[in-house]
């Protein structure tokens, strides 16, 4: 599983809260947390200013989180990116990795093929990545091809033209016939 971890564990960018509207980037690598900020201002003295960069080892980051009471980069991460991202960053610094999030899309789609459709709707609520996968054309193509009894090769052109998800909900998820076509799904 360690091979799933690249040098960079997590990255997010976002504009900071008003009034300054500065831009921030948070990068969590295997060894350190990097917070970069770009000053956004119309003032002449701020134009062309280089970005600020704070680099902290995981141990220092965890120590600062519990020791510093004044404004710090840890608090700045919470303010700019929210409490959930701060907690996730802390988890990564503690060595708690979410390997499922790191699996390649094709492997995740293969795993998802064993889930019931109702379970994939729950999975889609877990993260942005899982929502994207659950709504992807690849997922719906696999669902239609392998789970819908009424699908024929003649329908492939229609599915390619109108989209596999729309094909599923138009032809195979109709009231009254749902049980007939989706016996394996439910």
UniProtKB/TrEMBL annotation:
<dbReference type="InterPro" id="IPR036047">
    <property type="entry name" value="F-box-like_dom_sf"/>
</dbReference>
<dbReference type="Pfam" id="PF12937">
    <property type="entry name" value="F-box-like"/>
</dbReference>
<protein>
    <submittedName>
        <fullName>F-box protein 36a</fullName>
    </submittedName>
</protein>
<dbReference type="InterPro" id="IPR001810">
    <property type="entry name" value="F-box_dom"/>
</dbReference>
<feature type="domain" description="F-box">
    <location>
        <begin position="97"/>
        <end position="143"/>
    </location>
</feature>
